[in-house]
Specification:
Layout lengths: L3 E2 L3 H7 L1 H13 L10 E7 L6 E7 L3 H17 L7 E6 L4 E7 L18 E3 L9 E3 H7 L4 H12 L3 H9 L1 H10 L6 H18 L11 H12 L5 H14 L6 H7 L8 H14 L1 H8 L5 H12 L6 H11 L2
Parallel strand pairs: 1-2, 3-4, 6-7
Antiparallel strand pairs: 2-3, 4-5
Helix pairs in contact: 5-6, 7-8, 8-10, 9-10, 12-14, 12-15, 13-14, 14-15
Length: 328
């Protein structure tokens, strides 16, 4: 029926290959009517030594759980001397098991027969105009949306993204839309992708929110990214700002205003940062002595104390330079 993707069970069990294949198909078919209304794919697990067919409709994110469970279930039935039945089963996400829904009919029950009334199919390989009797192949090709693989290649080519970033963005269409809208000639694509895929996703995952439920608007994300790229906030403050925007769920809030109200602006003044470093060195003579005795790793500990005392508001590069000068 055009909805079924089949692959050997051992691929799914040992490497997750089937899951990747099915997820890729789900991405390809997402803009088309091929998936059902729930965005599910049809998973069919078939025994090696039997003609039994077990079908489980599910969302692509449930594939790995269903495959592993169904493989072990069917093996258990066969090892016990039983027979795997032809049936359609349903994945119970709460119980983490598949449960029977209905029996499958045998082939002859479907009453397959030749259709004598089908008209001839005439196609035109060059003309971009459909007619009542002829289907234009170029016209159909023009209507096909860009496939995921092409989108990944375009992201790597035009934005110089690493393959793993391109794959993640294509797998999350909402984040891809964010990325395309936010990235411009003045915004570093790699840093934008890093903020979306690492910082934003981390916040959403902690709150068990789906990407499509993210309340941060594109305009807010642009403003947030600019604050970070313009060195007005640190990465740690950027994380806090994302948390604040997600929790408040107010599309009218200005990230810059939040930063100002909470006094989160990055301190870049060299003299002020140098004074903070001096205070830390005065209060940690043991670490200073260890550093001067050759334990250079202590430098990171001292720098960490400075940053922590400033609540992550100091420019790291300036603080590092000031600390090096004071320790000479």
């Amino acid at each position: 029926n055009g909805k079924c993707v089949c692959a050997p069970a051992d691929v799914a069990e040992c490497s997750g290959g089937v899951v990747c294949v099915c997820a890729s198909y789900a991405l390809i078919f997402r803009p088309t009517p091929v998936l059902d209304a729930g965005g599910r794919v049809l998973n069919e697990t078939r025994c090696w030594d039997a003609a039994a067919r077990v079908t489980v409709p599910m969302r692509d994110k449930e594939l790995v759980h269903d495959y592993r469970h169904e493989i072990h279930r069917q093996r258990g039935v066969l090892d016990a001397g039983g027979r795997v039945l032809n049936e359609t089963r349903c994945w119970d996400a709460a119980a983490k098991v598949t449960v029977p829904m209905r029996d499958k009919e045998l082939v002859h029950d479907y009453r397959f027969m030749p259709e004598p009334n089908l008209p001839p199919l005439r196609v035109n390989l060059s003309n971009r105009e459909d007619s009542q009797d002829v289907i234009s192949v170029p016209l159909i090709q023009d209507r096909i949306p860009e496939l995921p693989e092409q989108t990944r290649l375009n992201l790597m080519r035009h934005f110089n993204l690493r393959p793993e970033y391109a794959i993640q963005l294509v797998n999350e269409p909402v984040l891809l839309d964010y990325f395309v809208e936010v990235t411009s000639q003045t915004r570093n694509p790699t840093k934008v992708a890093n903020l979306l895929l690492n910082e934003l996703l981390t916040v959403l995952n902690k709150r068990k929110l789906d990407v499509k439920d993210c309340s941060i608007t594109v305009e807010q994300m642009k403003e947030l990214v600019d604050l970070f790229l313009d060195n007005k906030i640190s990465l740690e403050i950027c994380k806090k700002l994302i948390e604040e925007l997600v929790d408040l769920s107010d599309g009218d809030l200005s990230p810059a205003k939040i930063v100002e109200e909470k006094n989160w602006l990055l301190i870049t003044d060299y003299d002020e940062i140098k004074k903070s470093c001096m205070d830390v060195l005065d209060n940690n003579p043991k670490l200073v002595r260890q550093y001067r005795e050759g334990k250079v790793k202590v430098f990171k500990a001292l720098l960490g104390i400075v940053i922590k005392k400033s609540q992550n508001k100091l420019d790291m590069s300036v603080a590092s330079k000031a600390m090096e000068e004071l320790l000479k």
